[in-house]
Design brief:
The termini are far apart. This protein is 30% helix and 26% strand. The strands form 3 sheets. Strands 1, 2, 8, 9, 10, 11, 17 and 18 form an 8-stranded mixed sheet that branches. An 8-stranded mixed sheet has the order 5-6-4-13-14-15-12-16, sandwiched between helices. Strands 3-7 form a two-stranded antiparallel sheet. By secondary structure, the protein is α/β, with parallel strands linked by helices. It is built from 11 helices and 18 strands.
């Protein structure tokens, strides 16, 4: 078997690459997407909280998500799907210990033209009366271009449209790959001119089997769906200084947190950690939002981050020595919001030989080999 481009991984990122390749009038080749879990039962795209923001500390992340929000607004036109996009913004809360970082991030965001405002505790309380400002020194509120959407529908929209345009999907697992193609668990050898590694949390494992060091691993995150007796009012996606976060989801709310130290092992079983709600999430939410004191969990799920242990930023672009290997992975929790921009960028790299819309060279693999991390401070 042979294909001009083989994409390893059919989640939002891989499907976006396939869609953008087949949408480019200058590309007339074949695209094959290999996905080992065609029902997407464990796919990060299907289990994501599916939110989008501009409040990053790294300018390129801002640019990627700015492209993303524009694409999401046009999803009905481009993909034929209604993503239910809501844009109430993000609200980052900081204690005195985190105030300097929040101000530094704000300076970066304002320099990039983001619609974001800083609120002291008095202004915060005036804007959001439902919040308890105890222990807070500052808040950062995104007033535009931030919110949440239906992530699984985005992934399926990419997938369906890519297939309609001629991309082929294979239900199989890539055992290993090299400069000439990929070896499949069930289907033998699939030769390729270009291989795109977009296997999400398992990208590091797949790369390792092929002799390539890639610092990407699955990290479990639990999401809790809860109900309250009386909704507090208009609520952005809010991140407490503790790391706990929450946002509305239909008539309910969802919430989660960063696991406690020592409880964030790579590849942990994909099981909800109910103790996180009891010991970390609910106590924080009840103290921060009095209306949440009587919160009741009605559902929950667990999904994997594709966690880049090197610097928590995406790894995108060609391998420095294997010219036909391209990475699109390691986004550490913000991959689905950046999948439109990264998919387009990778397609441009394949078709035109360089980036045309956004220059993603900053996130190239070579920074890993040379030990030059680009730290993202706003990892949620």
């Amino acid at each position: 078997m042979r294909s001009d481009v083989v994409v390893i991984g059919g989640g939002a990122m891989g499907a976006s690459v396939a869609y953008h390749l087949k949408s480019d009038p200058a590309f007339s080749g074949t695209v094959t997407v290999v996905e080992r879990d065609p029902a997407y039962t464990r796919a990060s795209s299907a289990l994501s909280a599916s939110s989008i923001r501009q409040q990053f500390s790294t300018p390129l992340n801002i640019h990627l998500s700015r492209f993303g929000i524009g694409f999401l607004r046009r999803a009905q036109e481009l993909l034929g799907v209604d993503l239910g996009l809501k844009e109430p913004g993000y609200l980052f809360l900081a204690s005195h210990a985190g105030e300097a970082v929040l101000r530094a991030n704000h300076a970066v965001q304002r320099g990039e033209g983001c619609s974001v405002e800083l609120l002291d505790p008095v202004a915060l309380k005036a804007r959001f009366p439902w919040i308890a400002a105890d222990g807070l020194a500052l808040a950062s509120h995104g007033t535009a271009n931030e919110g949440w959407f239906d992530g699984p529908s985005l992934m399926q929209g990419f997938r369906r449209t890519a297939r309609d345009l001629g991309a082929t999907y294979i239900a199989d697992e890539v055992v290993s790959f090299d400069a000439g193609g990929v070896d499949l668990k069930e289907g033998g050898r699939l030769e390729a001119r270009t291989v795109v590694l977009a296997a999400g949390p398992w990208s590091g494992e797949v790369a390792g089997r092929s002799g390539i060091v890639l610092p990407v691993e699955p990290r479990r995150r639990s999401v809790f769906v809860f109900d309250v007796r009386e909704a507090p009012g208009v609520t952005p996606l809010t991140i407490d200084p503790s790391g706990a976060w929450f946002r509305p989801e239909g008539r309910f709310y969802i919430a989660g947190t960063t696991p406690a130290e020592g409880n964030d092992a790579p590849g942990a079983p994909l099981e909800v950690q109910h103790a996180e709600w009891d010991e970390m999430v609910w106590p924080t939410l009840a103290a921060r939002v009095p209306a949440f004191e009587a919160a009741k969990v009605v559902n929950s799920w667990a999904g994997y981050y594709e966690y880049n242990t090197f610097d928590q930023n995406g790894i995108v672009g060609r391998h420095p020595r294997i010219e036909n290997l391209i990475f699109a992975t390691g986004f550490s929790g913000h991959g689905i919001q950046q999948s439109p921009a990264v998919g387009r960028a990778v397609a441009e790299l394949i078709v035109h030989g360089d980036y045309r819309t956004l220059d993603l060279n900053t996130f190239g693999y070579d920074r890993i080999e040379s030990g030059r991390p680009i730290r993202e401070l706003n990892v949620v």
